[in-house]
Amino acid sequence: MSDDDLPEGVRAPEDDEQFAEVVEMLGANRIKVRCADGQERTARIPGRMRKRDWIREGDLVLISPWDWQEEKADVEYRYDNRDAEQLREGGYVAEGV
């Protein structure tokens, strides 16, 4: 997916990133996400996002799966509600993600 395909001003996923929806807050800066590939993963919220970007259940995020442990990932970006709705309405994010 290129930047030209997405609505203007919306961050596009890079090669190793994918869309995911937050399913459950696990505590200790960890969340459970349902990914675009259909898999559920435990994702880690990095220190640079902990206080600046509040993440809640139902939020759309970009995650980067770990190379060495497929069931885990890092959160790279959180979309605000307006951008998430644009992505869902435009068909960039599948239903249930």
TrEMBL record:
- SUPFAM superfamilies assigned to the protein according to its UniProt record, in alphabetical order: Nucleic acid-binding proteins
Q: What is the lineage of its organism?
A: Archaea, Methanobacteriati, Methanobacteriota, Stenosarchaea group, Halobacteria
Cite a single GO MF annotation. Answer: translation initiation factor activity
Q: Where is the S1-like domain?
A: 14-80
Function, please? Seems to be required for maximal rate of protein biosynthesis. Enhances ribosome dissociation into subunits and stabilizes the binding of the initiator Met-tRNA(I) to 40 S ribosomal subunits.
Record-given protein name: Translation initiation factor 1A
Q: Which HAMAP family match?
A: aIF_1A
Q: Which UniProt keywords apply?
A: Initiation factor, Protein biosynthesis
Question: Record's superkingdom?
Answer: Archaea
- Entry similarity comment: Belongs to the eIF-1A family.
Instruction: Name the species this protein comes from.
Output: Halolamina litorea
Keyword field contains Protein biosynthesis: yes
